[in-house]
Specification:
The protein is of the alpha+beta class. It folds into three domains: 64 residues; 95 residues; 93 residues. The protein has eight helices and twelve strands. Helix 1 packs antiparallel against helix 2. The radius of gyration is 43 Å and the shape is elongated.
């Protein structure tokens, strides 16, 4: 059926086309005019109309005879358009994920470039201070002499860093470089009251003998992190497991304790423990026949943001 229809359309087009051409020629010779156009342009328009008529007849016959054509024109095309719109909407989250991935890649490239820069600095000299290293820590209580106290902290930090970078230089000369906006911000915050801790960190890697050290100050609230007698973390162990893996179990528990105080805002990196807690735990395990125990990491003093964390381990029978 489709083959017959195609042959018919070809024959129809072949018949109508000469007719349209002949009609255009006749109109041109008769010097007929439409809408006050020149006869030649009128003949061209008649030819165009004839071609459009051929196309219209072809489409009409296809719609009349071919169910498949009607299906594709009125059902499949809208369906495909709807599918295309849905695909475009589904593509939006993928584009967002692509952007996030590109941003991640860019950040990783920046980190890699920074690492390459650090390696070059290590190779070309003796690095005595690393980028981001905390150089000086000081506690600060708000009072009428706050600016004078800040100046003393800056001078003490400068002298301390000089001993690291240029220990042989006897002439006292400021080598720390600050952004004025950082100092102004610290003064603005601390004059409003409260207890604070100032961390002075290096902004770059520093080689031995450098004349200047760029620093970034960081201001933290000096708050209570743990209180005396507080159980910071605890864990329940079976007796046999504790006897076999005592060192690793306790180290894991202390690591959890360090993570916990970091979350609370402590800036110390290590936890100080009493030296005899291993012996006490072993003695308790040998004396008692209990199968389950709880180990508590207990703070021995009140500790603020910059204070050392001193703990002991207590074992309890369950």
């Amino acid at each position: 059926m489709a083959g017959i229809l195609i042959v018919f359309l070809i024959l129809l087009g072949g018949l109508i086309a000469p007719f349209g051409d002949l009609l255009g020629t006749k109109i041109g010779k008769a010097r007929f005019s439409i809408l006050k156009l020149r006869p030649k342009k009128t003949a061209t328009i008649v030819t165009i109309i004839t071609g459009s008529f051929i196309s219209s007849v072809s489409i009409g016959l296809l719609l009349l005879v071919s169910e498949e054509f009607r299906q594709r024109l009125f059902v499949d095309i809208p369906f495909l358009q709807k599918t295309l719109d849905e695909s475009k909407r589904a593509l939006i989250p993928l584009q967002e994920e692509r952007k996030i991935l590109e941003d991640t890649i860019n950040n990783k490239e920046k980190e890699l470039n920074k690492l390459k820069s650090d390696v070059k600095e290590f190779r070309r000299g003796n690095v005595v201070i690393k980028r981001g290293q905390t150089l000086f820590i000081a506690e600060l209580n708000s009072n009428p002499n706050i600016k004078l106290n800040l100046a003393k902290i800056y001078n003490s930090a400068d002298l301390y860093v000089q001993k690291i970078v240029i220990p042989s230089k006897k002439e006292i000369k400021n080598i720390l470089l600050w952004r004025p906006s950082d100092i102004s911000q610290i003064e603005s915050v601390t004059t409003k009251g409260g207890d604070w801790v100032i961390l002075i960190k290096s902004a770059t890697n520093v080689l031995k003998g450098d004349n200047f050290v760029f620093v970034n100050p960081e201001l933290l609230q000096n708050k209570i992190i743990v209180r005396s007698g507080e159980v910071i973390t605890s864990e329940i162990f079976g007796k046999n497991d504790l006897i076999k893996n005592m060192n690793s179990k306790i180290n894991i528990l202390l690591r959890k304790t360090r993570d916990e105080i970091k979350l609370r805002g402590s800036i110390v990196n290590e936890i100080t423990t009493r030296e005899d807690f291993f012996k006490k735990i072993r003695d308790s395990l040998q004396i008692n026949q209990i199968n389950k125990y709880r180990l508590d990491v207990v703070s021995l003093k009140n500790s603020k943001t910059a204070d050392p964390i001193i703990v002991e381990l207590k074992i309890t029978k369950l």
